[in-house]
């Protein structure tokens, strides 16, 4: 029972960590990355569809993205989605492909992005701690119902805390890497 609880905790905490990595991949650094626009929702005939499902995205130059729609009729939809997004980029279309040129990041913008990264890291830490809190409550419930002994409950809580500490350390490492990437000129 404790193993199942710990396995559930690890899965839920890992999900939070994966979501953080996905979020951070969309935060712009000084160089172009397909992750910047891959998940951009495009209104594709009434359905919000991620851009990666509608086009191939490549990086022909360090500061440029090239978006080549699989279906040329989606070009205008993709164009509109980019303009409507909070990316702050203006798409250049030649009728077949869209080019996105990424401007140089200012020092002020870099600091703003670092603050965004720190906020996302804190949200992830809170999610991980919430999982810990929920599962500690479950362990105490099991002990009250007599399903596990008090020693097993305490051991389970200790292992859960170790797992929590390990994953929060990973959150910090991921965030520090992204901050360094953003501040790199």
Describe the structure in your own words.
By secondary structure, the protein is of the alpha+beta class. It has 2 domains: 2-25 and 106-183, Topoisomerase I, Chain A, domain 4 (Orthogonal Bundle), CATH 1.10.132; 34-101, Gyrase A, domain 2. 57% of the residues lie in helices and 15% in strands. The chain has helices at residues 2-25, 75-84, 107-144, 150-183, and strands spanning 41-44, 47-50, 55-61, 64-69, 91-93, 98-101. Strands 3-4-6-5 form a 4-stranded antiparallel beta sheet, with helices on one face. A hairpin with a 2-residue loop joins strand 1 and strand 2. The chain is elongated, with a radius of gyration of 22 Å. The termini are far apart.
Report the β-strand fraction as a percent range. Answer: 15-25%
For the secondary structure, the number of strands is 6
| Rg, alpha carbons | 22 Å
Percent of residues in helices:
55-70%
Poorly predicted tracts of residues? none
CATH class of the largest domain: Mainly Alpha
Average pLDDT number: 88
